[in-house]
Sequence to fold (220 residues):
Amino acid sequence: MDGLSSSLGYQFAGERLLEQALTHRSHGTPNNERFEFLGDGVLNCIIAKALFDAFPALHEGDLSRIRANLVNQKHLCELANEIDLGRYLRLGEGEMKSGGSRRPSILADALEAVFGAVFLDGGFDSAERVIKKLFEKSLNEVSSDSGKDPKTQLQEYLQARKMALPLYHVVQTSGEAHRQCFEVECHVPGLGIRTRGEGGSRRSAEQTAAQEAYSIASKS
Fold:
C-alpha cells in the first residue's frame, strides 16, 4: 500500500481502514459501500468550500453545476487512474475476470471510499489535504463558464454552428432497483460523434456522455 499512500500524500495510522475502502462488495464483507457514502459527503463539502472561496461572485446554481462537473463519475475515474487505484482493489473473482478494476463506476466509488477512510483515520483536515492534492489541477482549470453543465455546453456549441442537436438514448440499465446503473449514448449527427456515459440516474449518465462528446467536438 506504500505506493498508494505516496500518491495520496497521506500515511494511514493502520492499513485496516484503507483495505476496507479498497474492498468491493463482490469480494465480501466488510466492504467499501459505507465508506463510499461517507467519502461522497466529505468530497462534496470540500469541493464546495474550495469553489465558494475561489468564486465569490458566482450564484448557488453556478457553483452547484461546477461542483457536479468536478465530482462526477467520469472525472473521479480519471483521478483514480492517475494514482493507479485499480491495481489495489480487492474484487471478487467474477469482477476480476470481467475487468472490474477498470470499470469507471467501481473506480469512482472506490476513490470516494478512500476519501472516507482518510476522514475516519485522520479527520477532516487530512481529507481536505488529500482531496485538494488530487483535485489541484482540475480546480486551477475551473472558470466561471464551467458553471454550465455538459449538456448545455454541447447544445450551445452545436447551436452556434447551426448544427443538429445531440440525441440521447439508454443503451442498458443494470444493478438492483435501489442502486441502478444507467448507460446512455450521446449521438451528434453533424459530427459523427458517438459517446457513452454511465451514472446512477439517466440524467447523470447523459451528462457524462455529453461531456465526452463536447470534449471531442471542441478539439476537432
Summary: The mean pLDDT is 91. The first helix runs from residue 2 to 8. Residues 98 and 196 are 19 Å apart (CA to CA).
